[in-house]
Please model this.
Amino acid sequence: MNLIKNFFKIATKGDRKGYFFSLPALIFMMALVGFPIVYNFILSVYNVDVITMGENSQVFVGLKNYIDLFKISTMRTSIVNTIVFTVGSILLQFVIGFALALLFNLKFALAKPLRGILLISWMIPVTVTALLSKFMFSSSGGVIDSILLSLHLISQPLDFLVSTNLAMPSIIGVNIWIGIPFNMILLTTGLSNISESYYEAAEVDGANGIQKFFNITIPLMKTSMLSVIILGVIYTFKVFDLVFVSTGGGPVDATELLSTYASRLSFTQYSFSQGAAVANVLFVLLFIVGIVYIKLVGKDEVMA
Model:
């Protein structure tokens, strides 16, 4: 109560009226974001499963759930798969998105219509995209196999989503298709904020296109590029629906990510504490990424 009274006492000052406007958002975040995170950490240090869920005397086990998890090969596999999925997706999403941003920044006649068409892949719900990709990669009449067979590039259908070697590259390819417009739009915005006077001055000094790109575009786009990469890592690291609908984490854990493994433990095996522990590992990793992002952006602002 004293904390609330002090808050209102401070907020009544004329130069701090903004506290009143931020209070609803703060309450919303604490109720719908803060509480689930705290409860998830509490759940992970108790032994809670389908049997003990409704009991009042749940056993406190400390870090036992985390220790037991890292003894399971599936947990280690899911961490590796999550990193591979994230790095593979972000790398190509960024490169292709940046190339398209540079293209559309040229402001030719069809730039806006084509850019709008490319946004379709980002606007379609991920679940719908996952279902479409599941049919496209199907070994029985799938579009991808049909095209490859017609071009005589393969002699028999490839089991993309049921092959331990092809399942991960397949879902990475789909995720790249989804994420390219996101990178393109944000990077196009960053490019549009660069004044043409820099390029005009460089032309006067005799700089060619490559020199202008590496000495003007890249340095001035550094903050925008960093933001796009970090946001992409955060979004990709916690991808669930695409993998869950496409492969369900299979075959043989080939596409099992931390997000799908947490879901499987909680809602299939009903090991709620271990599922919460996996989710917390994912949270900690993303929290570290966020701290790194804040440090890097803060360093750039200080240098600027």
Notes: The chain has a mean pLDDT of 85. DSSP finds 15 helices and no strands in the chain. The CA atoms of residues 78 and 257 lie 5 Å apart.
